[in-house]
Design a protein that fits this description.
The chain is about 60% helix and about 5% strand. The protein has 19 helices and 6 strands. The strands form 2 sheets. The protein has a 4-stranded antiparallel sheet, covered by helices on one side.
């Protein structure tokens, strides 16, 4: 068979997926539903009639796509937003997954008549929220979620895959009778998390140095470096015994929260790659399912979904977030937006590849649970957020008018710095910053709205300012905007006209972009 028909079919399906994403936005439904629908239409049970039953190939496509999606999610995750919710997000991504898996797995065992270890395996597969689903739904909504809800959800969905993968792989080994020792599970989990975290941060640091210090000669090569870095990070961490998903997410977050050349071009490239990965992954997973088998498991699958959505997830959320003083209405929204998506379907291919008894039933139930979760929860994010009073209009994001990071002939560079809360620049007019003469403040990005600054423009925490300066002057500007400390004695007056503020402190602080 020649390659041209395959290329034609693949390109046509991808284009159909792109158009479907636009239709999904207009209809107010998650795009992944239409992507899965396209795959099922082309598959064996659909009019396309394409026979595809290679679970191993689907698993490989899904893993690669998830790695790229998580890397993009990390790139766009701001440390300044995540830092206040880091502890509760981490607990939700670990303990929350365990609680959800236990409740949902026990229910599945009872409803489907499965052995307890197989039921718990199903619970582990559907225990994690899905990065592709959560990132897609949150960014396609016309509302933002206040009160730290949105960064909590994004952090959880990016960080809970390692726990779900670990539980799934472990329970597959238990169900297959390989003699896995339960005593060894905790050290294995700690090792996976530790190696993954170290590998992700190290890869991000090395990648940043490579991008900023090596002149590649062509702007188009910088995104090539980042996509290869993402794949190397995932595969290297996995081969070293760590969590590749955690590593690639942290690598993206490290790059996205530090000074980086060609930032806007890299961000646009990975946004496109993430969309392509989502479309391809959901199309392949849609091809793998047989819709004619779903009615046979519909009753039990609906029961599992109901317990997952209305019992397991809320209980896990309450147990994990109540100690942090999270209000009940915020907990309710976080529980409701715990969408299931590609990750559970990809994990459901693990027992298929291993040839476990009941593996096809598990896959069909998981697929049904994902469809129901996305259809019911994904389409009601906006109404639920408004019901609990945590929604606010999302600002329209304007295209970036400048491309920071490009060195200029006079030795200066356009760079972006983010104003840190309680830094010297937070709340002060530009004229009171006393920036070095070699620094020109060109632009202020305030929550997606671009401002041309004047001397009276008052900066706010979270503002991303574009500066033109050489390295030495840029370092001075960074001290004023990105460090939590007051000015030197006798320097600029305070905000109220009094002598300079005497605020000191340490902060991991700065997000220089």
């Amino acid at each position: 068979m020649s390659i041209e028909p395959v290329l034609l079919a693949g390109a046509a399906l991808t284009l159909a997926g792109v158009l479907a994403s636009k239709l999904a936005t207009r209809l107010g439904i998650p795009a992944l539903l239409l992507f899965l629908g396209l795959g099922m239409l082309v598959g064996t049970d659909g009019p396309g009639g394409v026979e595809f039953d290679d679970a191993g190939a689907a698993q490989a496509v899904g893993i690669a796509a998830l790695a790229l999606i998580l890397f993009d999610g990390g790139l766009s995750t701001r440390w300044s937003a995540v830092r206040p919710v880091l502890a509760r997000g981490t607990v939700l991504a670990t303990v929350g997954v365990l609680i959800t898996a236990g409740i949902a797995g026990t229910t599945a065992s009872l409803l489907l008549g499965l052995p307890i270890e197989v039921g718990l395996l199903l619970g582990a597969i559907i225990s994690s929220t899905d990065a592709a689903a959560v990132f897609s739904v949150l960014r396609s909504r016309s509302t933002d979620l206040r009160g730290g809800i949105q960064p909590t959800l994004e952090l959880e969905s990016g960080a809970n895959d390692p726990m779900a993968v670990f539980l799934t792989v472990t329970l597959v080994a238990v169900a297959s009778g390989s003699g896995t020792s339960w005593v060894a599970l905790v050290p294995m989990l700690v090792a996976q998390a530790g190696i993954g975290a170290v590998a992700g941060v190290a890869a991000g640091h090395v990648g940043r140095l490579l991008l900023n210090r090596v002149n590649l000669g062509s702007d188009g090569l910088y995104p090539v470096v980042t996509i290869t870095l993402a794949l190397i990070t995932y595969s290297g961490a996995t081969l070293a015994g760590g969590s590749g998903f955690l590593a690639v997410y942290l690598c993206g977050m490290w790059l996205g929260n530090h000074d980086l050349v060609h930032r806007n071009g890299i961000a646009r490239f990975h946004d496109a790659v993430a969309w392509l990965a989502q479309i391809g992954m959901f199309l392949v997973l849609g091809l793998l399912v047989w819709p004619s088998r779903l009615p046979a498991v519909a009753g039990a699958a609906l029961g599992v979904t109901a317990v997952l959505v209305f019992v397991a997830r809320p209980v896990a959320t309450a147990i994990c977030l109540t100690p942090f003083g999270v209000p009940a209405r915020h907990q309710a929204v976080i529980a409701w937006v715990g969408l299931r998506g590609a990750t559970p379907i990809v994990l459901a291919t693990f027992p298929l590849v291993e040839g476990l008894t009941d593996s096809q039933t598990l896959f069909d139930v998981v697929f049904f649970v994902v469809l129901t979760s996305v259809l019911v929860q994904g389409t009601t994010v906006g109404p639920v957020a408004r019901l609990f009073g945590v929604s606010s209009p999302a600002p329209a994001r304007q295209p970036a008018p400048l491309e920071p990071g490009r060195p200029l002939p006079d030795g200066t560079t356009l760079r972006e710095l983010t104003v840190v809360p309680s830094s010297f620049g937070d709340g002060r007019p530009v004229v009171e910053l006393h920036l070095p003469e070699r620094v020109l403040l060109v632009l202020v990005d305030r929550r997606g709205t671009y401002l041309v600054p004047t001397g009276s423009t008052r900066l706010e925490a979270g503002d991303t300012v574009t500066l033109l300066a050489d390295d030495a002057a840029m370092a001075t500007a960074g001290e004023l905007l990105c460090e939590v400390e007051g000015p030197p004695p006798g320097d600029a007056p305070g905000r109220d006209g009094s002598p300079g503020d005497d605020r000191t402190g340490e902060g991991p602080g700065s997000r220089t972009t």
